[in-house]
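Why do we care about 3D structure at all? Because function follows from shape, and shape follows, mostly, from sequence. That is the central idea of this module. The next example makes it concrete: a single protein chain, its amino acid sequence, and then its structure expressed as tokens.
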Amino acid sequence: MAARSPTRQGLLTAQDVARFCDVDLKTIHHWVAKEKLTGTRTTGGHLRFDVGAIVEFLRGHGYPLPKELSQRKARVALVLRSRAVRDLARKALGRRFELVEYEAVVDLAVDMRASRPEALVADPGEGDPALAPVVARLRTLFPQLRVVYFGAPVEQPITCIPHATPGLLRPHLEAELGCA
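And the structure:
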């Protein structure tokens, strides 16, 4: 039987996290009880953790990133209405990241728990009035979500990369998500 990829669905088990931290499984459960780690429980009561949250936890606590996390193909949501802008983003990110595309940021919000993207790339200049409030709410609900605006700068603490420099998207996201 082939080994299961722990990052296949964007979720890690408590055993995976214990192995990454070189601690006992009971320690992971203790950290969850003390709210040092946030996980969700399956219907069977087993803990699952978002990959992005675990990468952030490992980096924040000085643990080295294991190869299977640093070399993963992180999932990135694209909310880019313009075909030309979408094509630029696909070309810059397509081989390195798993891309999930949405027509509007509201569609991403509805699908967030199922798709579990680690990052969002959106264009604030495309006139979507829901973009800023929905992104703000997503960042509250999913603090590990990295957001990059690909286009005109906005007055928010969000990284903006101009359309003229699509080559900056990939290295920026690799650094933010801990991907080699």
